[in-house]
User: Which sequence fits this backbone?
């Protein structure tokens, strides 16, 4: 299990931050294309619809990918706090993309 200091230090890992930021852009693109109608994206009745909330989040991601990447990195690190540093830094692209996809609703304010 990574310590709190180790998790905080991972926020400065440029390689991990770049991977997460790229995954954020991929998720934002998925949302903007309207391909967010299935898991891991939540589907609750609106208004506003969950999709509308995600579109607003996606627009912010495209406008400032670096800042949004840091926010999503915080979420990814928090959700993986039980893993050790080597597991986090060694995560595959697919695992990181999955973690980011799962964080989209949280960041868009679409929570159960």
Assistant:
């Amino acid at each position: 299990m990574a310590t709190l200091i180790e998790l905080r230090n991972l926020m400065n890992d440029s390689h991990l931050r770049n991977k997460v930021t790229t995954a954020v852009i991929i998720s934002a693109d998925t949302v903007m294309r309207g391909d967010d109608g299935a898991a891991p994206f939540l589907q609750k009745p609106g208004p506003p619809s969950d999709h509308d909330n995600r579109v607003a989040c996606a627009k912010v991601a495209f406008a400032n990918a670096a800042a949004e990447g840091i926010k999503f990195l915080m979420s990814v690190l928090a959700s993986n706090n039980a893993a050790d540093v080597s597991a986090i830094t060694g995560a595959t692209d697919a695992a990181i993309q999955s973690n980011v996809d799962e964080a989209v609703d949280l960041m868009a304010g679409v929570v159960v």
User: Anything to note?
Assistant: Residues 4-107 form one domain. The two ends are 28 Å apart (CA to CA). The helical segments are 4-10, 14-32, 50-63, 65-79, 85-89, 93-107.
